[in-house]
Known about the structure:
This protein is mostly helical.
Amino acid sequence: xxxxxxxxxxxxxxxxxxxxxxxxxxxxxxxxxxxxxxxxxxxxxxxxxxxxxxxxxxxxxxxxxxxxxxxxxxxxxxxxxxxxxxxxxxxxxxxxxxxxxxxxxxxxxxxxxxxxxxxxxxxxxxxxxxxxxxxxxxxxxxxxxxxxxxxxxxxxxxxxxxxxxxxxxxxxxxxxxxxxxxxxxxxxxxxxxxxxxxxxxxxxxxxxxxxxxxxxxxxxxxxxxxxxxxxxxxxxxxxxxxxxxxxxxxxxxxxxxxxxxxxxxxxxxxxxxxxxxxxxxxxxxxxxxxxxxxxxxxxxxxxxxxxxxxxxxxxxxxxxxxxxxxxxxxxxxxxxxxxxxxxxxxxxxxxxxxxxxxxxxxxxxxxxxxxxxxxxxxxxxxxxxxxxxxxxxxxxxxxxxxxxxxxxxxxxxxxxxxxxxxx
Length: 423
């Protein structure tokens, strides 16, 4: 039996406190923003913005239909327009203080009618736009004119084409549907696009290690080829390429696990969790060990300025879709004629090419095989892909500093195949 119970806090009191607190925080950020630029505070002090938020709250409470609030909004907008006209005559053209005033005035009805998490997100966005001006300006300056077209392509792929595709098999001999095919294209393109944006805009002169991480999220094979070629001309002084190549392959396993989970194959993810996790952790430890060995050693070629290849070209999406359908049909035929053993050999052979469309086709189809057989096929495909990258590392780099990476990739390939047949 409890001795006492805490009284329930009235929702209106919570909304008022949140309005005052967030209005005060926005005022502090505006104050700091203008002080940092040696600007006259004028409108936009902490007290002014806090009182503006309270005014919006009170008017919204007095009239739930928000007619009083809209009248106040018109008056505030008129006063802010006059104030902006005065600042414009003084040579200040920024509309930011005016917009911040209007956004702060809207806090009251937002706190009264919407959940608290939405209000918090609203304020966070305002604070980020205020506090991250240098980063936003740098991003705007480096934003390429073609990126808007690229974003439009992605919106067409994800928002227009995907909903229109029927959920029916592509052909009688292929158990994959049109919607499953294009969903896989959209998911792979999304992960690759995020990696591309990070490489292009947030880490344009990324170091070798970061190039391995971000490149591995896009394509570990492509990242290995780029890093190996750079290692050839880097000379014997740069030892960062070996851990970078290992990190690229570790990212491959993380990317594949993310794809499997996003597409809803939870049971398959659980089957792959142990082998994938062991390889990723071991790869990270070895990469860390190799990095620690060169800590403090000057590496003059520590920058990777090679531009990332854009992942959202329609030709790339079409090629992925064609490979997806081809691998789905080929897998269906191999399983029908040769069973699990044939699928294992097919997985090993496809590992020497692009494994993403094969693995996604394997997951999307309805084949006469069990979950363990599909798991084994995925592991074998990643194993042979690691053997391919080991060969690329030795053949393209021709630098003894990357030998540990090649040995580890080859070892993971052998261990993965052994795991399939010995477990």
